[in-house]
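Blinded run. Sample ID left blank on purpose so nobody reads anything into the name before looking at the predicted structure. Input follows.
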Amino acid sequence: MTLEIRKPAAWAKLPFEQLLAIEAGQAYVAEQLGGKVEPVATFRSSRSSSCSYDVFEDGSLWFHSNGDDEVWEDASDLTREMEFGDLSWDEIDSMDRDLLVHLVGEKDAKFFYESRP
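Blinded prediction complete.
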């Protein structure tokens, strides 16, 4: 029996070596093989039990969702692409707020959020 290892959609055309060069990619593949790579932090959604962020020591991120999972080489790239519409800092999902605090610190996270375009 052949085991087929999936890649996150955004990585489909890239070689496995590139995905495996980051800890989030290693964790994504390890889970399919029954293994585990421990993140340094995990942030779970307050709105959906199937959504969470795993942040790794190298700064990479695995976004678990009920749709397609995403693997980011740099977690801060994700924070720049997040879209929240007109939600205030207190209205966004706790996992997004906690991720921002983890990456830039509590004082700067709220400023970063409120100064986005």
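Unblinding after everyone has recorded impressions. Residues 9-114 form one domain.
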